[in-house]
Amino acid sequence: MKFVRQFCIILFISFLGEILHVIIPLPVPASVYGLLLLFTALCTGILKQEQVNAAADFLIEIMPVMFLPAAVGLLEAWPSLRPICIPVIFITIITTVIVMAVTGRVTQYLIRKKNHKSHTTD
Fold it and tell me: Whole-prediction pTM value?
C-alpha cells in the first residue's frame, strides 16, 4: 500500500505538470514542470522525501527498461539515420562532455560552499 500511495503522489505531481504545460504558453515539456513542482515541494518541506522515496527508487531501478522501446525505434529508423550518423555522434559526444564538465563544476562549487559554511559556523 505504501508504494501505491507514493506512486499516486508522483502521478499527481506529474498531472499538475501537465496542467501547467497547458496553462503556461512556454515551450517547456510537462515533465519539466512536474520535476520543478516535485523539487519545490521537497525543498519547501511540503513533501517529505520519505513520502516518495521507495517509489522513486523503483522508478530509477527500472529506468533502463524504459529506454528499450526507443532503442528499437532507432534500429527501425536506421536507414533514415545512416546519413546523419557521424554528426549526431559528434554532437552527442560534445554535449555529453559539456554536461559532465558543468555538472562537475556546479558540484564542486556546492561542496566548497557547504564546507565553507560549516567551517564558519564552528
Answer: 0.63
